[in-house]
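Quick note —
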Amino acid sequence: MAKDTKARILGAALEMFSQYGYAGTNIRELTASLGLGKSSMYRHFESKEEIWNALLDEMIAYYAARFGSAERLPPVPDTREGLIDMTLRMVDFTVHDARIVMTRKLLTIEQFRDDRARSLATKHFLTGLAEMFTPVFAGMMDRGLLRRDDPAMLAFAYTAPISALIRLCDREPEKTDDAVRRIEAFSRHFVRVYGTERD
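Predicted structure written out below.
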């Protein structure tokens, strides 16, 4: 039951932080939204800052378990079509998982206030995908699926436009379907340009 309450607090905190930011989230309103008193919340978390840090810890673990990370890499695809499929699965998760969408919004709001949020925003919006795709592309080169090039530069060239289109989905959700189509078209263009004759 205590674990359940803690999870409910973190879920409500994610919703409120992603809408109103850290400063705009009031603990009294947060606990009231769950039908709890402040004293109930303080049995689980000593402060709003503790909720904030526990939430970031939880979201890092949630993202890594479902999406991957530089420490938990996706498998190297056996074909260039496999790269496109893997990319679209990752994009689908990224733009449709409500917790991940709220986390990106939270990081966008808080990256200018909180050092940890800034570091996570840099990783999730810029460096993390390139770090994940660098060994994927190196492996595809070793398999003769992509032409030899600098895998880190190739990963950056591949992931930057995809990241930009994901950010568009956050700002203008009504454009999500179009953005996903553009990501697929870009992925197909990329493998035509960088692919070898072999598949």
